[in-house]
Structure prediction request, 195 residues.
Amino acid sequence: MKMLQEKITHEGIVLSEEVLKVDSFLNHQVDPQLMQAIGHEFAERFGQEGITKILTIESSGIAPSVMAGLTLGVPVIFARKRASLTLNQNLLSAEVKSFTKKETNTISVSGDFLTAGDTLLIIDDFLANGQAALGLLDIAEKAGAKVAGIGIVIEKGFQPGGQLLRNRGVRVESLAIVESLNGGHVTFRKEAQPK
Ligand code: G4P
Prediction:
């Protein structure tokens, strides 16, 4: 997706050979116009799949998911990473280990909003080791819901998450695939070049 790649190129900060900082438009400050374009792109890619709901995880998955939900005309559910005062019954939960942060979170969604009749589009901001996506797949399975695919804003192609999920037969659509961050420079994978 051209607009996204240009934004990453101009505003992304390479913190190390493994970490890309995109706080100016995705992880802290949010660019609504870019999110809208991202939402349209996901809707275009998954529009024929009969999606009934979008499933994401707080916090940075929410903005692109809401925009995709707006375009597809479906609700967005975000998994919580912490206990909530009000979300405490009929929970569907999964363990998510973060290699980056070296911590494990229990993520939860209310079974009131996720049912066996749902066809889900899972969306997240980054795909690195794939643990968040696996946790969301686990929750979808516990609900008996069908997963049409996973939409990722930025996939780090040099980390194993993408391969892990695709090897499971899950359709993964990443709007930008970063091939390498070597030398302080962002290199994109060819398949994700501008249309
Ligand atoms: P995984 O889910 O693919 O296994 O990812 P991992 O555990 O490695 O990442 C944990 C957190 O770090 C996630 O955010 C993920 O989006 C983020 N992350 C991973 N690699 C990068 C990177 O190169 N750049 C940026 N900016 N973030 C990265 P989170 O803790 O869920 O944060 P948030 O959604 O609340 O913002």
